Structures are given as C-alpha cells and as structure tokens.
Amino acid sequence: MKIIHAKDYSDMSRKAANIISAQVILKPDCVLGLATGSTPIGAYQQLIKWYEKGDVDFEQVSTYNLDEYRGLSHDDPQSYHFFMRDNFFDHINIDLANTHVPDGSNPDAEAACSEYDRMVAAAGYPDLQLLGIGNNGHIGFNEPDDHFSAGTHCVDLTESTIEANSRLFDKAEDVPRQAYTMGTQTIMYARMILIIASGKAKAQAVRDMCYGPVTPTCPASILQLHTNCVVVADEEALSLCPAE
Ligand code: F6R
Fold first, then answer.
1. Distance from residue 140's CA to the centre of ligand 1 (Å)
2. What's the CA gap between 115 and 133, in Å, rounded?
3. 74 exposure class (CB count in 10 Å sphere: 0-12, 13-18, 19+)
4. pLDDT in tens, 84-98
5. pLDDT tens per residue, range 130-140
6. Which of the residues are catalytic?
7. Which pLDDT value is given to residue 211?
8. Rounded to 5, what percent of the chain is helix, strand, coil?
9. Torsion-angle region of residue 168: left (phi > 0), alpha (psi -120 to 50) or beta?
10. Ligand 1 pocket test, candidate residues 38, 39, 175, most atoms within 8 A of CB
11. Contact 190/125 with Cβ under 8 angstroms?
12. Cα–Cα distance between 7 and 233 in angstroms, integer?
C-alpha cells in the first residue's frame, strides 16, 4: 500500500482528483469504479472544474459504481443513481449510457446482482477503483463479517452503517436496511485501487486497514494484498497510524 498524506479534506480531494484525471488522460476509454458518500464529493467537484477548463475529457470513459440501496428507484433523491448524476455525471461530458450502478429498483436480488457482475466482468473490471471507507472498515457495503465476500450480493446493513448514513435522510427509519454491493473479490480485480479518507471518525478504520491483520472483521484490510493500492488520507484520518 502506498500512503499519501494530505493536509485536510480539500487537499485529499485535489490529490485524489489528480490521480483519477491522470488515469483518464493515460487511457481515455478507461473503466472507472466509483463510490458515493461524503468523502468523494470534493474529488468529483475538482474533476468537474478541470473538465470545464478543458483539462480532462470523459467522453469515452465508462463507470461502474460500487453499490445501491435495495428498494430505491433510480430517480429517488436518496438513491446512489441520483447521487452520481447530481454530484458528477450531469456536470461532465460522460455518456450516461456508459454509467452503471447496481439496480436497486429490481426486487429480485439474485438477478440484479448476477447481472451486475456479468456487466463488470464484460467491461474487463475497473482500471481504477475509487473507494471510501466506513467507520467500521467497510468498503462498498461489505460489512465486517467472518469471511470476505466474492461477487455482487445483497447485504443487510449494520446498525452502525444505518446510523452513519442516517445523516442524509430525514429519519434513521427512512434508511433502507439492505443494499446491493460489489463484493470484495470484485473490488480486488480492479487494476488500481484509490481509497480516500478524511476526518477523525475514520482514524481507527484507516489504522486497521493499513497496519492491522488482514481479516474480514475489517474488510478494507484485504487491500494490503492488492499490488497497486494507494491510500490518500488527511491528517485526522491518519492520526492513529504510526509516523513513517
Ligand atoms: C459508497 C460506499 C461506502 C462509503 C463509506 C464511507 O458508495 O461504498 O463504502 O464509501 O460508507 O462513506 P462516507 O464517505 O460518507 O464517509
């Protein structure tokens, strides 16, 4: 793992956006694996600015998002489909037909997940997979467990994830209890992983990911075994890590 120290959230966002834009410049028709949540918003905003200046072009890029809540339609403002359009896709020149998010509106979990796996495999897996990290070490919605997951599957969200995500809903009861998520194995197939973290709430998870044992009780710890994984984290998120 390569750990890049950022000063704060905006420095982390700019560094992450630099790495993503380098990928798009090096391979204009690349496949990006993307994440939602609060952490990547600053990187998306930076990429939008560079797109507007003409510095980066998304015309040939295709994307596969990590996850989606089960039971939300694509135009539900709480859905990750909506989030991606609102925070990124509607502001750049990407072809929406080349953007993919698991289909949370399909109640048939088995069909929705196997179809998504088929599509990600057919695309050859991401050249670069952007990840955030949960306070409990989850990646995608792969929650702490007694085994690492494989392909896209339906998960029951943990109470701590429901609570963390409730800030984006009117009430905690409104947070969906299940989600479809790419599995850990699928995430590991990406040729490069870029995982970003900001703030004190992530400090223990970042320490466990980078320096703890590789264990499914901290799903992000598997990234220690990836041959091309870059962590970009700010001072607060790195505050429990040994000084290097
Ligand atoms: C989002 C995702 C999640 C988030 C994680 C951190 O697509 O897969 O794993 O990356 O929950 O969320 P934030 O960035 O909101 O702290």
1. 7
2. 25
3. middle
4. 999 999 999 999 999
5. 999 999 999 99
6. 67, 136, 138, 143
7. 98
8. 40, 20, 45
9. alpha
10. 39
11. yes
12. 8
